[in-house]
Design a protein that fits this description.
five-stranded parallel sheet; 5 strands; binds CO-5-methoxybenzimidazolylcobamide
């Protein structure tokens, strides 16, 4: 995508806006080293990790997604873009989770069975950790048994599920129905997210909420945990 006029581009010499534009191009081209360099430059110029994440990386991946959809990019190129994105996220992760905040709750999160998309889930995990949550990430392609084993082992407040494909999102209902059948549904707050979902879908499958993005996931998690704790202490007559 990036126009190559034969001149080497020196990232550190670019103004912020041009650098971000160049990073979108570099992400598109799957240039991991350049993405790492760009992230470090922006951080060095005083950008917050969250700004770098959203403006340089997430926006760049949005553009990749459009051309993937339109058949301009194919799986191998998108994989390279995803790897470059992950390299940038790797630098930002410790900065985003660097917080003295007391643990506000625990979440188990994973991408559902049949689905290997994990960038969005990883981002949600990072933002939740940054907001003071303990996060147990069970990875991709999770059958219901994996969710059950993880919640039994870790006893979280929240179960989070991610799906990026219209063919895999119905699996969320399988997990929630299983919790229901086992009489465990009300023990957990269930949050769902992923590009093809919406609020109506979340309501249909019996989730507590749909989270449009990682920031909404954090806000929703905090709000629902506070509500749950309030009603528990009211029930206990405190
Ligand atoms: Co895939 N892919 N892909 N892909 N891929 C999509 C999803 C697609 C929309 C592309 C397109 O056509 N435009 C399309 C799905 C179409 C559909 O179902 N309607 C698609 C397809 C078709 C496929 C394959 C079938 C392609 C093929 O093989 N022919 C295949 C399926 C593989 C499988 O899973 N079984 C496939 C493969 C891949 C790659 C492996 C190449 C790669 C994934 C690499 C990886 O994740 N490690 C990939 C990628 C990168 C994408 C796109 C381009 C980008 C996804 C992404 O990372 N976005 C994507 C296009 C798109 O989404 N526009 C696409 C950035 C990320 C930050 O956003 O994931 O939405 P997102 O997460 C957000 C929110 O959704 C929310 O918060 C996140 C952060 O703000 N959120 C949650 C997400 N999960 C949450 C969980 C929560 C809360 C919020 O829990 C509490």
């Amino acid at each position: 995508m990036a126009e190559d006029d034969g001149e080497d581009i020196v990232l550190s010499e670019l103004e912020d806006d041009d650098l971000v534009q160049q990073m979108h191009d570099d992400l598109y081209d799957g240039l991991k080293d350049e993405i790492e360099e760009g992230v470090n430059i922006l951080l060095g110029r005083g950008w917050t990790p969250y700004e770098v994440l959203t403006k340089a990386l997430v926006e760049g991946m949005r553009i990749v997604g459009i051309d993937f959809r339109d058949g301009i990019l194919f799986v191998p190129e998108v994989l390279m873009a995803a790897n470059a994105m992950k390299a940038g996220m790797f630098i930002l992760r410790p900065l985003l989770i660097e917080t003295g905040a007391p643990r506000v709750g625990k979440m188990v999160i994973g991408t559902v069975k049949g689905d290997i998309h994990d960038i969005g889930k990883n981002l949600v995990s990072m933002m939740m950790e940054g907001a003071g949550f303990e996060v147990i990430d069970i990875g991709i392609n999770n059958p219901v048994e994996n969710y059950l084993a993880a919640i039994e082992e870790h006893q979280p407040d929240i179960l989070g599920m991610s799906a990026l494909l219209t063919t895999t999102m119905p699996y969320m209902k399988v997990v929630i129905d299983t919790l229901q059948e086992k009489g465990m549904r009300d023990d957990y707050i269930v949050l769902v997210g992923g590009a093809p979902l919406n609020e109506a879908f979340a309501e249909n499958v019996g989730a507590d909420a749909y989270c449009r993005d990682a920031a909404v996931a954090v806000e929703t998690a905090k709000q629902l945990i506070a509500e749950r704790r309030r009603s528990n202490s009211e029930a206990a007559g405190e």
